[in-house]
Design brief:
The chain is an alpha+beta fold. The protein has 3 helices and 9 strands; from the N terminus they run H-H-H-E-E-E-E-E-E-E-E-E.
């Protein structure tokens, strides 16, 4: 009797294992639909992740480009504010005892609009006034600080030139005072700005039209400032570039604007 009961218990246990086996196999795996759904969700997450990274990289690049553009505008603006505003009115007085050519004795041989026979001041016919300006070029004398390698008075020549199939604003620096005998001028050329589409200068000061009493003409904006014995009061600078960067109009006030440097006003001369 007991043997029969044990046998019946074994049969029930075996039946339970057989009936539960399919359920156990189902719980340890995934169906094809579940795998496809998981892969789809993973793909969507990866696409969103890479899209976010792309947007972040693009925003970073645009931010760096904007910073570079702002820095470029700031550098050019600071250049004119620092050097042009402190332009010094001087006469080129480097002729020697043998009346040698001035251009061979000084750094002003490339003076813009120079005409020795028609100098503005009667007592300076053989001299060149330091400030000369045209629509797309400018020349003036300013001082570099002692901390710079090119300390002292320098002749700044700023012109719009074409280089490597693009227009650039180039600055040429030449020492204003003559060097010792046997040495050469340490002239340096620097590109101030590239990709220039337009560079226009204007000068505010008294016109050459004097009245009957000998008073100078009225102040107005002029396209050129040549063969005068005074500096303009203001210089207006308009720049446009091919990369679409907005350049605000710059108006520079000269600290020694309108200084009388003619014969009757004890002109400043190089070396004094």
């Amino acid at each position: 009797m007991r043997k029969a009961q044990v046998q019946a218990g074994k049969v029930r246990i075996a039946h339970h294992v057989i009936s539960a086996a399919p359920g156990l196999r189902y719980a340890t795996g995934f169906t094809l639909i579940e795998v496809l759904i998981a892969m789809t969700l993973l793909s969507i997450m990866v696409v969103l992740l890479f899209s976010s990274l792309g947007i972040c990289a693009q925003s970073w690049e645009q931010g760096e480009n904007k910073i570079a553009e702002v820095n470029e505008v700031a550098v050019v603006s600071n250049f004119f504010q620092r050097h042009l505003s402190s332009a010094t009115p001087l006469w080129d007085d480097f002729t020697d005892g043998d009346d040698a050519d001035v251009s061979s004795q000084s750094g002003t041989g490339a003076a813009i609009g120079r005409d020795d026979g028609n100098a503005a001041a009667a007592g300076n016919k053989d001299k060149t006034f330091s400030f000369q300006g045209k629509k797309e070029s400018l020349q003036f004398v300013s001082v570099f600080p002692a901390s710079v390698g090119r300390a002292g008075m320098q002749l700044f020549s700023i012109q719009l030139q074409k280089q490597d199939k693009e227009q650039v604003i180039k600055v040429t620096l030449t020492p204003f005072f003559p060097v010792t005998e046997g040495e050469e001028w340490n002239q340096e050329e620097v590109i101030l700005l590239r990709h220039v589409s337009d560079f226009e200068l204007a000068y505010f000061g008294a016109t050459d039209d004097a009245d009957d009493a000998g008073n100078a003409g009225k102040n107005s904006w002029q396209k050129e400032w040549l063969e005068k014995d005074v500096q303009p009061k203001l210089v207006k600078i308009n720049i446009s570039t091919t990369n679409g960067v907005f350049w605000p109009e710059m108006i520079i006030a000269l600290k020694v604007a309108g200084a009388e440097t003619g014969v009757n006003a004890a002109p400043l001369e190089a070396g004094n």
